[in-house]
């Protein structure tokens, strides 16, 4: 009959079984208590002196700053901090909905801003806007004038108010032209040539290196054909360029301004010669930057 284990042996066995499976793995070093966190804390806005209350339209945004255009034509640059309260009046962010964040402060959005004064300038303690105006600003950013017409009633039941918002947007769309790339077409055609395709992606790559760049695509024709035919053809050419820029060159749709067709208007050369007509059968890809970003 085998001998029973002694009490000491049983204790040793129990201790061994209770040890974790990771026996032999190196232990994580114990905290030293000397953790250093770098950076600047968010300012306590309640401790700063009050600044002016401002009402106007956001015409530019970069990083944590916005530029607001007032009714008097004056612009003011205001910083947004983690402590800034952002409030929508009703509707889109009504009770039960998420509180809007800084990403809601889009170009074209009418706002009322309560500010405080800091050494670095004005900081917004509160930004307030109407939810209907935010919907319009989102459409300005992501859509086109056609969507304005199709969805205007949904944005705002008051047609006069919608037109006023569109007018305010029109007033602030002032741009600096940075470059123009022309691509050319065969007579009566809207198909892109291999050279045109290469030139479009080259233009898109160059535009990516320009801060806050937008594209404006305009289609043209020569003088051959009727005005109605040329208008349709110029729009088809512009559409072909936009599709290629977005689908192949990966230019973001929200960075594209509303395209247009200009038919035979604004020719580059005389339509009296075949060479001149070839220069006029084109689409111009214009790289623009809003003047509202100057000084930002």
Largest sheet: 5 strands, mixed, barrel
Summing up helix and strand content along with how strands pair, one would put the structural category as alpha+beta
Widest sheet: strand ordering: 1-2-3-5-4
* Principal-axes shape call: elongated
Number of discrete helical segments: 7
Describe the overall structure.
The chain is an alpha+beta fold. The chain has two domains: 47-172, OB fold (Dihydrolipoamide Acetyltransferase, E2P); 176-293, 60s Ribosomal Protein L30, Chain: A (2-Layer Sandwich), CATH 3.30.1330.60. It contains seven helices and nine strands, in the order H-E-E-E-E-E-H-H-H-E-H-E-H-E-H-E. The chain has helices spanning 7-18, 131-142, 145-155, 159-172, 194-208, 227-247, 274-280; strands at residues 50-62, 65-70, 75-88, 110-118, 121-129, 175-184, 214-219, 260-261, 282-290. Helix 6 links the parallel strand 7 and strand 8 (260-261). Helix 2 (131-142) packs antiparallel against helix 3 (145-155). The longest helix is centred in the last third of the chain and has 21 residues, at 227-247. The chain starts with 6 loop residues before the first helix and ends in a 6-residue tail after the last strand. 26% of the residues are buried.
């Amino acid at each position: 009959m085998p001998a029973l284990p002694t009490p000491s042996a049983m204790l040793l066995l129990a201790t061994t079984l209770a040890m974790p499976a990771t026996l032999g793995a190196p232990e994580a070093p114990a905290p030293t208590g000397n953790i250093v966190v770098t950076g600047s804390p968010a300012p306590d806005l309640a401790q700063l002196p009050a600044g002016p209350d401002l009402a106007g339209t956001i015409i530019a945004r970069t990083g944590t700053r916005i530029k607001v255009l007032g009714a008097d034509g004056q612009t003011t640059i205001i910083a947004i901090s983690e402590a800034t309260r952002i409030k929508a009046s009703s509707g889109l962010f009504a009770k039960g909905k998420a509180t809007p964040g800084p990403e809601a402060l889009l170009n074209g959005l009418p706002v009322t801003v309560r500010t405080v004064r800091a050494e670095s300038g004005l900081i917004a303690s509160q930004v307030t806007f109407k939810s209907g105006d935010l919907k319009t600003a989102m459409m300005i950013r992501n859509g086109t004038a056609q969507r304005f017409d199709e969805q205007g009633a949904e944005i705002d039941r008051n047609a006069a108010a919608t037109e006023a918002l569109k007018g305010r947007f029109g007033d602030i769309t002032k741009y600096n032209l940075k470059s123009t790339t022309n691509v050319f077409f065969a007579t009566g055609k809207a198909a892109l040539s291999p050279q045109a395709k290469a030139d479009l992606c080259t233009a898109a790559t160059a535009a990516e290196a320009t801060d806050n760049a937008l594209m404006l695509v305009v289609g043209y024709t020569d003088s051959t054909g009727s005005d109605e035919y040329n208008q349709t053809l110029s729009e088809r050419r512009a559409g072909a360029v936009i599709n290629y820029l977005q689908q192949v060159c990966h230019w973001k749709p929200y960075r594209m301004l509303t395209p247009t067709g200009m038919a035979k208007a604004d020719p580059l050369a005389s339509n009296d010669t075949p060479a001149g007509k070839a220069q006029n059968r084109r689409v111009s890809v214009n790289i623009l930057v809003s003047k509202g970003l100057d000084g930002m």
